[in-house]
Amino acid sequence: MVDIETTQPDRANGPKFTLDIEGQLVPWSEDTITTEQILELGGWEISQGVVLIDLRENTERTLQPGEVVELRPGLGFSKRIRFKRG
Predict the structure, then answer these.
(1) pTM of the model as a whole
(2) CATH second-level architecture of 15-85?
(3) How far apart, in whole angstroms, are the C-alpha atoms of residue 63 and residue 86?
C-alpha cells in the first residue's frame, strides 16, 4: 500500500528556489544561502572557493567565506545567477 500524501511533494512548503551550481539545478527552500552551503552542495573543497555569476549583468565575483547570498524566488533565478568553483 502506498500513502499518496507522503509521496507527493509538499507544494506549500517545498523548494521555492532553483540554484544552478555548475550546470546542475539544485532545489533550495531558504531565502538565503551561504558560501559554505554552496560548497557543500557542489561537493567542492573550501580551498576552491565559490564564484557568483550574474548573467543579467554579465558579472562575476568571488564569494567570501561566511558570505550570505539573498535569493529571489523562481526558476528564473537559476537562469540569471550561477555558481561555479573559484
Answers:
(1) 0.71
(2) Roll (3.10)
(3) 9
Q: At 79, which helix (H) or strand (E)?
A: helix 76-80
Identity of the residue numbered 44: W
Identify the pLDDT of residue 63: 92
pLDDT digit string, tens, across residues 36-53: 999 999 998 888 899 988
Radius of gyration of the chain (CA): 15
d(CA 86, CA 6) in angstroms, rounded, equals 39
Residue 50 in contact with residue 38, Cβ under 8 Å?
yes
Binned at pLDDT 50, 70 and 90, residue 19 comes out as confident
Give the separation between CA 45 and CA 41, rounded to whole angstroms: 11
- Residues 64 and 69: their CA atoms lie apart, in Å, by 10
